Queue: 3 jobs
Job 1
Amino acid sequence: MRAPALEGDLPVPEEKPGFLKGNHAGAVRTCDTTGLPVCLEAQKFIQLNAVMAVVALLIGGVVALLLGLTRWPSVHLLPSEWYYRLLTAHGFNMLIFWMIFMEIGILYFAGTTLLNSRLGSKALAWLSFGLMVTGAVTVEAMVFAGKADVLLTSYVPIKAHPAFYLGIILFAVGALVGVINFFLTIYIAKRDKTYAGSVPLVVFGAIAAAIIAVVTLLHGALVMIPTFTWSMGWTEMPDPAWYRLVWWGLGHSSQQINVAAMVSCWYLLGTLTVGAKPLNQAVCRGAFVLYILFINLASAHHLLVDPGVGAGWKIWNTSYAMYLAVLASMIHGFTVPASVEHALRKKGFNKGLFGWLFAAPWKNPGFSAFFLSLVIFGFLGGITGVTLGTQQINIIAHNTLRIPGHFHATVAGGATLCFMGLAYYVVPLIFRKEYPLKALARLQPYLFAAGIVTMAISMSFAGSYGVPRRHWDLEFTGSQFAVGFDSAAHFMMGIVGVGATLAFTGLIIFVLLTVWAVFFGKSNAGKPMESW
Amino acid sequence: MSDEKAAEVIASEHEHEDHKTPGTMVLVLILLASFAIYYFANWKALADVWHVR
């Protein structure tokens, strides 16, 4: 608080939060739609990362359809070795490559556009992108060549080709360089005073995601480097229990980067679509801090039936620390729709309890994808996640199809759908190209959401009947003893296949429309984007 | 849909505004009720397969 002015003092001008003079040295344009400054160097790297993200989404999506049709008992499409091979590819493309490429693009956007700053380092951005692409291509090559049928977890002692581990390390180091470049951008923006006041909430969320990313990628280095040296024959095999513990510091925490980035995008899309503002800065930022402090401990719920760690450790991490991260999600689960409600009520949509919700721009795929993502993440992903993360309940669900039922609601229905919604703004505002076939684009989020919801719920029901996750054959053909599943389980697996097909339809429409828009779309340079 | 440009909204996001959001309150109460039902059903399922005598 400033001291009261004494008589005769000159009035000190208030420094209002917002943009000041940028430090772009000419390499900047003002967005014709949002009025935000767009750093041209950062724009190029946002575009490159977004393109790679969509390529990974396409690969992961095609593979997902094949997997869904294999787990559908009456179709049972793939032979067993290709099932596990493609399951490995699906995990890497959807959980790692699609997400992390998008997130590096989001970090560059948040650091430059929202802080009115130049990119920290062009050289670092190239280095990051080059390492990530090299790593991703190496992993893809090893997996599709059949030299890494080890699934995403790649638990030792199952051994893959050394190039597979090297690819993961290169990708992780590339992502880490991207994150460092983001922090450098923030430092430069702060040093050059390109903005006044605290950073915008979206940037604060991006910083939270970046901090979680550093923790995640350090875990990755810690576990993957000794695994790589072991695969080369240079060192002994890492201890399997140690491997599992540290690997989940990479495997689950990478999904927490997604959560923090997704929540940041919810706030951003709320602003872009209905002009929403965060209702309470302290509460929203406090929730992001809870993510930083506690969300990585939630990784422990993957080890709830692991004999290598004790009950006290499991209970502390999953029944105490994890709930503080859940509290953060519940705070965002209130503040995000509340900010949308407040913005719409201010525009006059005040009728009854839900007049604002019916008046929301549901034809805008940016909005529908964002709001559906919020609902699916909260109702399906959140509720099942907290329940399955309870140590006692986990014993009846662990390694069943209930687990993929949960995380398809969080990762696909939540983060992926949200990032699709973001793309409906990235393409017109950053690539400056219009989407074709707008009616199909409007339908796309609903198709994808319906497919994912159908699939996630039927996976959960099938898992409740004991259907295992990551298993090629529901009948356990050739096993020493007969394994019979209830006919309801078979029915649910059929619905999983239907849901997967529907979700794939939504996904492929998104990819085709986006690729068409980027390469052949009508340019909107010099004018605002067309209305949805 | 949004009349104000995003740049103006973001620049003014620190300004305090009074707000009433009864619709969202109802939505989150539905979420909490759904969670309570699902959580209870899972404890019941656990009790059914894992008897404590």
Note: The mean pLDDT of chain B is 87.
Job 2
Amino acid sequence: MRRFVRESGLAVFFGTLFLVTLTAQSVAGQRATNAERLEHGERALSWGGYVVSADFAGAVLENWQSEFLQFSLFIVATVWLVQRGSNESKSLSEAGTETDAQQRVGAYAPADAPRWARASGLRRRLYENSLLLVMTAIFLASWAGQSLGNWRTYNDERTAHDLPELGWIGYVRVADFWEKTLENWQSEFLAVGTMAVFTIYLRQRGSAESKPVGTPHNETAG
Amino acid sequence: MAHPVRAMFLLYVVFIAIGLAFFIVVGARG
């Protein structure tokens, strides 16, 4: 057990933090929602009631989608774009999808390579892009989910103000949806750009997210 | 690949799939 936790330290640490903060979000969200409901003379929601509300679903997924978009773009952009001196970049000469030999696929795959890395055709195409495909699929699914949750919440508010409900297609064209989407995107892009640039000059001794401390600034991690 | 590492990978996959399905259904249902 101790060995398992040590070997999966990152997964255990971030998985635990995720569960704790998601729970805390649900408690804070329930209180915030109930404060508003009481102001409008509505009945308070139980914690369970809030967890299965469109409000909570929209709030959770609007953050999920932006995180998965961030990583999807980071994965695909770092294939072709480089940043001289950055820990987050390949060396300048490696820009692009690289040769089969560099990627150790097909005839260049070692005996213990993943089976689909040794294959050819569609299977290898899929496996070569599997990280990007899965991360993008999660982004799209959570963005769609966000739109549904936000749409229901938006209509609840319209109903409360005696306004007619909007269809989903109508909702994804209103400013409310795009504000909730873009407020998350902008912060992700700033953070990724900052990591790409800051790791040229700044260091964290021992971190996989940093170049070794004594590495010259102009040396790209690659 | 060590077995526990694969288990952790699958745990993340299952968690995300269940989470997505749950929140999408909840969002759609209102």
Note: Chain A has a mean pLDDT of 96.
Job 3
Amino acid sequence: MIQILLDRKEPSAKEVRAHQNFEEILAAHRYQQQVNNPWRYWLYATIGCFLLFLV
Amino acid sequence: MPLQLSLQQQSFLHEEEKTQIKRAQQDPRFFAPLYERYHDAIFRYVYRRVDEEEQAYDITSSVFVKALQALHKYEYRGLPFSAWLFRIAKSELYQSFRDQKAKRTVSIDKVVLKQVIEEWTEDYTEHDKARLLLALKDLKEQQLQLVEMRFFEKRSFKEIGEICGLSENNAKVKTFRAVLKLKDIFHQKE
């Protein structure tokens, strides 16, 4: 079901700019890259094996 | 007086943008000028289609994060960079409707609504306004999108085609059919 809004007030360009900035986007992108990197599992496994070996 | 860019200026801007995209593909920090150029337009496209402002900010953020993630795949093949961003925005929007995170909304200015009604009837009444709003709700999603972009956002057929993945002519034909359908439903609701 759609909703129709008449004469809706839009935030000004200044308000929009104040609400969001590129640094946040870049940080989110870097976090996603880390999460999506399959090598990190190998890294965790290698560190785990190394620790076991030490013990 | 509206700002008119000469063909030479347009081509300069286009080349500048291509250079910015290439630099951003190598290092995402250089995406900043592209973000600054298109953020407002993408936000407004999203805002007009969702019911809550916060949702619009969230969806806009995810559009740019997705764009950064897919930027290495972007290749200029005639489709402007802005259209590529609008397509990501469209896909993110529909994903949030499917996930029921946002409610599909159509934002209309009363002046535009009045103009549409005056084209179809002799005079504008509150009853006609209610009929048109009901008729809009009866349109199929794709038809609604075309009417929304053409009449309520005043986009060109070329731009509509680029956003919807249609040729300019196809966008024109489909919009014309959508308007006919809307007109039909409007008159049936008498």
Note: Chain A is about 70% helix and 5% strand.
